[in-house]
Amino acid sequence: MPDSGGSRAQREHIPTSGTGPGADSAPLTPHGDAGALSVDPGAPQVTAPAGLPAAPEPGGLKAARRTGFLVTMVLGGLTALPPLSMDMYLPALPAVTDSLSAPAATIQLTLTACLAGMALGQLVVGPMSDRWGRRRPLLLGMVVYVIATAICALAPSAELLIGFRLLQGLAGAAGIVIARAVVRDLYDGVEMARFFSTLMLISGVAPIIAPLIGGQVMRFTDWRGIFVVLTGVGIVLTLVVWKWLHETLEPGSRHTGGVGEALRTMRGLLADRVFTGYMVTGGLAFAVLFAYISASPFVVQEIYGASPQTFSLLFGLNSIGLIAVGQINGKLLVGRISLDKVLGFGLAVIVLAAVALLLMTTGVFGEVGLVPVAAGLFVLMSAMGVAMPNTNAQALMRTKHAAGSASALLGTSSFLIGAIASPLVGIAGEDTAVPMAVVQVVCAVAAVGCFLGLCRPWQRVGREAGGL
pTM for the full model? Predict the structure, then answer.
């Protein structure tokens, strides 16, 4: 947890039930740039809860910090669920191909289906959480996730597995979108960027241990056992959410409209050029990441002959790089250097790493082994540690009135773009890594173009500590 004293969890009472403060609430001003969007003049205005007294009693302050810590751990678990669902399954992709007698491109569609489900599910759950609060939609989604994951373990064909993975993604979307919305409920500005980096530390453990767990499960059972383990993880996380994650959106801050208001809210969000710029930039960066996730099992194991355990170790090492850079971002850079400067540097590194991978896979440097390719992937993954948290923070800073809808748009764009990138990396078969590198270069360059063309960071001087 950041210790600068700027978090709402420490400044204010965090609601522990569905009731919020009374009439003493004061309206919040929009966050971010001057001129940040106002989605709908008729939409309910968000109010800030009353703060703690100037000199709170030690017991009250201790309770607030304890609540903040629990929220951090629960949100970390929710954000860890998607990489668990994806990465535990990665070492088993070749085995699933053989077991279900399906081509690699078809089995990669099981990843695409899960991603597409997570993308579409967020469009539904995000506005639901703005209307009914964060807790109830989250619990419902978690229960359905557990059921869908258990069914995946029984799938007798590739087609049914794809369908059940779609349902798993639709339900799992609740954890993704609501976790971001809860962060927006509790934090502002630079503190929000720091909190996203803290979540990256917690959720980043999942990509490290998930392939390792998946590889070890494969030693004792087949790929179906991985879904059995995921079912158990879902049950535990559902119980944790039910017991410890209290409601963070006060009744007075909730939207009362139906589908029409949700659509108007999203249209207003998309009309904000800068918000859309960060959204698309983050989505394209995620596509670079997911091109690696979906192709690396075949690249590392089939092309370079590594075992599932070696692949798991390499994947874990890359995740350590992402976590380490994310913590440098949150602890050392945020608040000292402009978020846009850090984001621009991260995007530039991603482009350079992707170009290097393309040159290696096309034979420009001759025949290269696993070590140079693994080094390029490590640099690429590490740079994601500044790209992903900062695009989310910069986008969410521009809106407080509809954090659920904004979070839904951010997640949906990322997962849809990632879902499109996934089958492209296998379009030339299992014997070449060139499609993976091409997709990464194209998406990385496009992300830089969106950042410069839509966000235009040079036009917003003095927005944050460190300037531009």
Answer: 0.65
